[in-house]
Amino acid sequence: MTKPANSAHDSAHDWTHIRERGNLPILRLMVWISLTLGRTLGRVVLFGIALYFVLFAPAAQKSSRDYLRRALGRPPNWRDRYRHVLSFASTIHDRIYLLNDRFDLFEIQVEGAEELDRVLARDTGVLLFGAHLGSFELLRAVGCRGAGHQVAMMMYEDNARKLNATLTSINPRATQEVIPLGQIESMLNARDKLDQGYVVGMLADRASGPTQRHSVDFLGAPAAFPLGPFRMAAILRRPVFFMAGLYLGGNRYRIHFAPLADFTQVERSERDAAIRSAVSRYAGLLETHCHAAPYNWFNFFDFWATT
Amino acid sequence: MSETASSEAFPALMPELAALIIEALNLDITPAGIAPDARLYGEGLGLDSIDMLEIALVVSKRYGFQLRSESDDNTRIFASLRSLADYIAEHRTQ
Asked: What ipTM is given for this predicted complex?
């Protein structure tokens, strides 16, 4: 159990905050430009923004370089760094279109959904763990078109408020059912939703505040992953799936689902071992996707700092 | 509301509940180590919301009633060992 190094998170946050600052008038303007002039012209603005951040966000750039070196297995060049930032900016920009159900603009492949569908067909609640890897917005988008399973996202209330303000400013009909984290009843809430057959999603690669962590090898060095999401899954004895919506450049996305762990039969005595092996598998899946689509890692702080 | 009266009706309840919590969460303290009025969540005993879930589940199982998320009183119920014991005393079916 290690304490998280929050300072590492805070110091590198300068530009990841653009999406969280909640500057609604500017956001509305950008939404208007993007929806009126179209995705192609919207992206021209984006190229400039990405360039700006490659040049003028040193802290984020340092963590980007460190990460890319691990994922690519070589020192990243200027082009890699630009593509990294552009991928991040693109996924944010594309949310505008996804939220407005403009699926026609995108080529979206889905891989590994069969197993998830099989489990969902049993009409049982399922946990879906993503990461700050690619676009999690795709989940909501795909969920809306899917078999009608209700989706709720677990997130910190502050983020949730900003998200819902953003969503409604983009599309007044879009809302996200949110289970607020950081409250006594957060987990009871998740349990009730799962009992009702919901798909409950969360990003399992970050935690806020002091939390239990487990160090596993990730891209060649130990990284401390939060145990919370996995402890919750184990206590609630639920199946867990991994999900990542990778941005592949242009208008192409590929969604990956993979079984991550099934705690339905895990007894108390086996719990800790099962949790640790699930965290290892989670890190392994992340690593695979980081190698396959390296520009999708959106943790712009020193992810390895907590070990 | 006669909160103190309710847990006083079961004098063994607080130590029993403390032992239950310690066992469920694998805490390295004795039942006497949980002060009746110390905060369970956050500072105090330092438990997080997943620990609270674990407590809610073992309490449900042991005392035969459900702790619901819709209840507005969760913050009060889970505030301390004493408040939880009071709530259990009022609602237990076994």
From this structure: 0.80
Cβ distance A241 to A126 under 8 Å? yes
Per-residue confidence at A19, pLDDT binned at 50, 70, 90?
very low
Residue A34: pLDDT band by 50, 70, 90 thresholds?
confident
Residues 192-251 of A with CB under 8 A from B: 192, 211, 228, 231-232, 235-236
Nearest CA in chain B to A227: B50
Nearest to A228 among B50, B52, B74 (CB): B50
Q: State the pTM of this model.
A: 0.85
Q: Find residue A231's DSSP bridge partners.
A: none
Q: Which residues of A213-222 are buried (b: 16+ CB within 10 A; e: fewer)?
A: bbbbebbeee
Q: Identify the CA nearest to A32 among candidates A76, A78, A96, A95.
A: A96
Residue B54 contacts A, CB cutoff 8 Å: yes
Residue with tokens 């590198």: A12
Q: What CATH homologous superfamily does B3-91 map to?
A: ACP-like (1.10.1200.10)
pLDDT higher than 50, residue A184? yes
Break chain B into its structural domains and give their ranges. 3-91
**B26/chain A closest Cα distance in angstroms:** 11
Among B41, B48, B72, most A C-beta atoms within 10 A, so best to mutate, is B48
B54 min Cα distance to partner chain A (Å): 7
